[in-house]
Amino acid sequence: MIYKYELIELIYDKILENATNIKLQWANPEGTNTRYFVIDDFLPNEICELIYKGFPRDGNGFFNRDSFRERKKTSADLNAYDPILSEITYAIQDDKIVDLIADLIDFPQLEPDPKLYAGGLSMMFEGDFLNPHIDNSHDVERLRFRRLNLLYYVSPDWNIENGGNLELWDDKRLNPKTIFAKTNRLAVMETNKNSWHSVSPVVVPNPRCCVSNYYFSKLSPDSTDYFHVTSFTGRPGEGLRRLIGGVDNGFRNILSRVLKTGRGKSLINKDKK
To answer: Based on CB atoms within 10 Å of each CB, which residue in 89, 112, 172, 197 is the most buried?
Structure first.
């Protein structure tokens, strides 16, 4: 068994080792206005393999999202699965890790989210996808702004041709920058009003497994007070999906403001560490 405190030290050392490269990547995003960085060989290979093996092979017990917006399986109920999934999730959420990343990218007052609102575990099987979207602007209580999305990919021998890759879009959502969902890679991207991103369709039977975390802050990304639900659009050439997405986003924004409801509020982690 690998424990959280061991993972924290491994992660902390790996981030420090890559500090200069992290700063360079963050300051110079290529092919997108969304700032990001990746760290390869994030953990020892044997630990990455153990984390992957902790996922249920068929996504049993995961919540199934299936609409024109997306198709994937997610879970924030970490106690239902191998303990290593909880250990790695909360290691990435440890204050020591949060503060180090905040310092390297100059994001003050970052905070983790033990409730895992929209975070936790993600599995995508053949045919699954995530259309271009911007994430919900806030945490589940709507007290803090969502600032960082952290994605740790653990599926073994994953090839870029398999799909399931992160895509960061330009402002008009015409050209994506592909971030390969490489085995044992941590990808970190900023989230704000314009951080349009997606996941390319998975085209192989094997699941693309990911440990997902978000960091939040009481500070707005652009110093304005705003709110929006997770908002989707279509890919280039998908005119109908873009039209439907615009109407759907507007309706859900109004509904969420009036009724204080939101996607995934019932799916948060209730046994947070």
So the answer is: 89
Burial readout 27-50 (b: 16 or more C-beta within 10 A, e: otherwise): eebeebebbbbbbeebbeeebbeb
Q: What CATH number is attached to the domain comprising 135?
A: 2.60.120.620
Q: Which two tokens stand for residue 12?
A: 């902390």
pLDDT in tens, 150-178: 999 999 999 999 999 999 998 888 999 99
Residue 165, number of CB atoms within 10 A of its CB:
23
Q: Residues near 94 by Cβ (< 8 Å), separated by ≥ 6?
A: 4, 8, 112
Answer whether 179's CB lies under 8 Å from 215's CB: no
Lowest mean pLDDT among 19-33, 122-136, 155-169, 253-267: 253-267
Domain span at 42:
4-267
Q: pTM to 2 decimals?
A: 0.94
> CB–CB of 205/125 below 8 Å?
yes
pLDDT tens-digit readout, 111-129: 999 999 989 999 999 999 9
